[in-house]
């Protein structure tokens, strides 16, 4: 399978990429790692007239730490970069672990954090982690840029808050409060390793053992990754024991609207999986908290 | 509009004019005649098309040839030196790591990177690292042995 013909540009700066994007408008698509875009172009589900490859913009590939302990990850950083980053391993080990569970070795070498979020595949792994870890997304346009809170980013199936003239340049991950544990648990599709359902949990526990903050991101279940807010509400303010986990996780499954129903899993099974993997993620996050 | 690219494949520099939509695997096979790299599923799942680009194993059915402009590419044809098999190839020979052999070049190229980064992997690490390479002869047992053989040989 070969994509329909297109023109190809490989700018070396964000400024040049933005200029090309403005010039080509709706005819253009941004190419990151290409492991979502090229497959759909081969199927001719997407037929852009022009590709703007961000792969040669070295400014978009970095991982750094700020004084306040937050991490900044360039949008073109690959899963391989994130998995092997000593900084990520030290600050948010669950994110490094999760990067090593995306697809496979070859996919991890090409796939990028920015590409995953901007593409917003309903079965992508990082959207769930982004919600649990409260990512802030930094973008650029020819005029200026902005920061988008992750809670306002995923709009619908393959649809985000990014505007057509906007490039996602970096991701900020706020420092985790003391006593926070994070876990990502998924059922991978056997062939693609996409998440049939995946749940990321970031849970903060105080000295008295009470849960003070909980963010749960669910992917794979519905048209877009969502927070399981009812589950979070049940956890917060409680000593989380097995009974609380069971009750909270059940709400994660019951709470996704428009459950996906396809050949990989029925809607009913996905709801069940969401409950199962929410419980596993909460349990592991708790064991890592404190 | 064709683009001019310059790619070093197995140590030889090639300058070619390619359509942007040309996939790297087709460039290697059809343009350079390096047919050791196979096209299996064509949907970036089976790993038969795996080659090493600038040290990273990639599925060449999901990379454009233009993306490899300026890169160093190693294919299965580039591993043996002066008639001597690469240790990973030797492992497949010694441990009977293949039956039909269709998936073998891709698996060898993946292991090339894996052993480069982790010279002494556990059996579990080897199996996990081969998640993106599918063998339909069900020969994984001996593929793992081949990888272990190679890891040991490369440390000697």
Helix content of chain B: 25-40%
Q: Please, what is the average pLDDT of chain B? A: 96
Question: What spatial order of strands do you see in the largest sheet of chain B?
Answer: 2-1-5-3-4
- Report the CATH topology name of the largest domain in chain B: Ubiquitin-like (UB roll)
Let me know the CATH homologous superfamily of the largest domain in chain B. Answer: Beta-grasp domain
Question: Given this structure, which CATH class of the largest domain in chain A is correct?
Answer: Alpha Beta
Any idea how many domains of chain B? 2
What is the rounded Rg of chain A? 19 Å
General form of chain A:
globular
Fraction of residues in H or I helices of chain A: 25-40%
CATH architecture of the largest domain in chain A: 2-Layer Sandwich
In terms of quaternary structure, the protein is heterodimer
Count all strands of chain B and give the number: 5
Structural class of chain A: alpha+beta
Tell how many strands the DSSP assignment of chain A holds: 14
Give the termini distance of chain A in whole angstroms. Answer: 51 Å
Low-confidence stretches of chain A: none
Instruction: Identify the overall geometry of chain B.
Output: globular
Largest interface: A-B, 29 and 33 residues
* Sheet having the most strands of chain B: 5 strands, mixed
Task: Please provide a written account of the structure.
The complex is a heterodimer of chains A (290) and B (156). With 290 residues, chain A is of the alpha+beta class. Chain A folds into three domains: 7-56, Uridine Diphospho-n-acetylenolpyruvylglucosamine Reductase, domain 2; 58-173, Uridine Diphospho-n-acetylenolpyruvylglucosamine Reductase, domain 3; 180-289, Enolase-like, domain 1, CATH 3.30.390. Chain A is built from eleven helices and 14 strands. In chain A, strands 4-5-10-6-7 form a five-stranded antiparallel β-sheet. In chain A, a hairpin with a 5-residue loop joins strand 4 (63-65) and strand 5. In chain A, helix 9 packs antiparallel against helix 10 and helix 10 packs antiparallel against helix 11 (267-288). Chain B has 156 residues and is α+β, with helices and mostly antiparallel strands. Chain B has two domains: 3-78, Beta-grasp domain (Ubiquitin-like (UB roll), Roll); 87-155, DNA polymerase, domain 1, CATH 1.10.150.120. A five-stranded mixed β-sheet of chain B has the order 2-1-5-3-4, covered by helices on one side. In chain B, a hairpin with a 2-residue loop joins strand 1 (3-9) and strand 2 (12-18). In chain B, helix 2 (87-94) packs across helix 5 (140-155). Chain B is globular, with a radius of gyration of 15 Å. In chain B, 49% of the residues are buried. The chains are: A alpha+beta (290), B alpha+beta (156). Chains A and B meet through helix 2 and helix 6 of A and strand 4 and helix 3 of B.
């Amino acid at each position: 399978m070969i994509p329909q013909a297109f023109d190809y540009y490989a700018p070396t700066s964000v400024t040049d990429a933005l200029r090309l994007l403005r010039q080509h408008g709706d005819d253009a698509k941004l190419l990151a790692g290409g492991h979502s875009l090229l497959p759909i172009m081969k199927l001719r589900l997407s037929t852009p007239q022009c590709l703007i490859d961000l792969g040669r913009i070295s400014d978009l590939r970095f991982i750094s730490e700020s004084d306040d302990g937050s991490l900044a990850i360039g949008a073109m950083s690959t899963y391989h970069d994130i998995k092997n980053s000593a900084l990520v391993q030290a600050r948010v080990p669950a994110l490094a672990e999760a990067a090593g569970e995306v697809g496979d070795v070859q996919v991890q070498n090409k796939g990028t954090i920015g590409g995953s979020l901007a593409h917003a595949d309903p079965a992508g792994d990082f959207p769930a982690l982004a919600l649990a870890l409260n990512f802030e997304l930094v973008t650029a346009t020819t005029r200026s840029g902005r920061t988008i809170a992750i809670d306002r980013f995923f709009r619908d199936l393959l649809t985000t808050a990014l505007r057509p003239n906007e490039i996602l340049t970096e991701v900020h991950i706020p420092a985790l409060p003391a006593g926070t544990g994070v876990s990502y648990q998924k059922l991978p599709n056997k062939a693609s390793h996409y998440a049939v359902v995946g749940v990321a949990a970031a849970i903060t526990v105080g000295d008295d053992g009470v849960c003070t903050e909980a963010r749960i991101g669910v992917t794979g279940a519905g048209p877009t990754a969502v927070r399981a807010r009812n589950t979070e509400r049940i956890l917060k303010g409680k000593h989380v024991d097995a009974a609380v986990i069971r009750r909270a996780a059940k709400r994660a499954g019951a709470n996704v609207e428009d459950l996906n129903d396809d050949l990989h899993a029925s809607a009913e099974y996905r709801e069940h999986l969401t409950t199962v993997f929410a419980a596993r993620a909460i349990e592991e996050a708790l064991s890592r908290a404190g | 509009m064709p683009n001019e690219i310059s790619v070093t494949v197995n140590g030889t520099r090639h300058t070619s004019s390619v359509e942007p939509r040309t996939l790297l695997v087709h460039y290697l096979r059809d343009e350079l005649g390096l047919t050791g790299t196979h096209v299996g599923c064509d949907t970036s799942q089976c790993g038969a098309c795996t080659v090493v680009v600038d040290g990273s194993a990639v599925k060449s059915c999901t990379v454009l040839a233009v993306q490899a402009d300026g890169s160093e590419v190693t294919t299965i044809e580039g591993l043996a030196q002066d008639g001597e098999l690469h240790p990973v190839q030797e492992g497949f020979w010694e441990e009977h790591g293949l039956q039909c052999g269709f998936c073998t070049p891709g698996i060898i190229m993946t292991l090339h990177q894996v052993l480069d980064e982790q010279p002494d992997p556990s059996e579990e690490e080897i199996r996990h690292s081969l998640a993106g390479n599918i063998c339909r002869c069900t020969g994984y047992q001996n593929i793992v042995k081949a990888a272990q053989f190679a890891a040991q040989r490369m440390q000697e």
